[in-house]
Structures are given as structure tokens and as C-alpha cells.
Design brief:
227 residues, mainly alpha, two-stranded antiparallel ribbon, 55% helix, 11% strand, globular
Amino acid sequence: MNEKALFNTLYTALKNRQGLYYTPAKITKLFRELVNNDDIVFKTSRNPLIELGDVVVTGEYDCLDDMENYSSITIYVGFNPKETLLHVGAPGAFNLKKLAINVVECLGHEQVKQTRHRSRNFDVNPVIFISGAQQDDDWQEQQFIGQEDEVEAFGYSIACEMFLKYRANVLTSQHLFKTLMYRVYSTQFGENHPIVNQLVSYTLSYYSKLRGENNGKSIKQKVQSIA
């Protein structure tokens, strides 16, 4: 996937529709047509936690469907249950650039997991982190985001968000802290935890690839800048 090209396609399409009114189904259809990939299904979803006027993108990879050669990645374009029409680009409505970034990042996140499953011949048991958290909510979250599949996928997500937002030559800790998932990982595990270090390593590697750099010297320089 060419993240920059896809982002430009999505963002341009949204900007060209500023001032128009779109139904949730029509926005979902727009993304489906622009991405145009038979392995990716776009669906409209509803969630009362989503504010009116906002759009939230989430994704899911199904390794069992992938094994059977069915479409295995689903991107959910989420809206408030009461949403009927959205005024594209209107003040207070969803941010066009942020939405385009979220679609690209979410799609790539699921493709990372797809690649990992395929590389191990669809073994559904990746390396599991065993949480020692005492609180049930913390335990469940650490068990989930501590899986190696998720660590790499979220490393990609952070890199993709920073690449499309900032295009910085060198990443810093300030860049990382601007991303929600880095803050989640550092809060759950602590900044010096091996899982957080692994997350940063994946982030640096993917960021280097997104910039078209040679992994190695560039990553070493970025590690020094973040340390």
C-alpha cells in the first residue's frame, strides 16, 4: 500500500465534496470505491458513544476468512445512531484530514496483522504477554495490546499517523507523545518496559519505510533522538 498516495486520494475527494450533505452510507460507499480492493470490506456501523457530526473508523482482520480466501479485512465507518446527514467540511463537523489519515492508518494496521498471520501459516497463537496487573480493566487491556501482533500493528499505526501528520525528518519523544496509542502503552506498561521499547522499534522501522529510507543508519539516528 502506498500510504501517501491513498491519503492524498481520500483527502482530495473529501475536500472536493466540502459543502455537500452526505448520508453515512454514502460516505462509506465513497471510501469503498476509492480504496477499491476486493480483500477489504467497508461497512457502516453505529455507536451511541460517537458524537453527532463525527466519524470514527475502526477495523478488523479475520484470519479464518483469510484461510478460505474470503475478504478478510473489514473497515467500519462509524456514526452516531441518530446521524442522518453530515455536512462535509462544515465548522464543527468531522475533520477531513484526520478522517483520511484514520482510514489509511486503520487499513494498514489490519494489513500488518494479516501479513503476520500469513507468515506463520495462520497460526492464531502469537507470542502472548502475560499481564500482572491487579485491576481487571488494566489486565484485559494489557493482555490485548501486549500481544506481539498488536504491538507491531500499533507501531505501524503510530508511524503512519506521524508520517501523514508531520512528515518530520527525525522523530522525537514529543512526536510520540502526541499519539494516543503511545500514551496508552506508556501508561499501561511504563516508558521503559520491554513492550514499549518494542513498540518504539516497530514505529521507527515503519516510519523509515514510509519515508522511503534505508533501514539502519536512519533508524539508529532516530533512536538516539528519542532516547
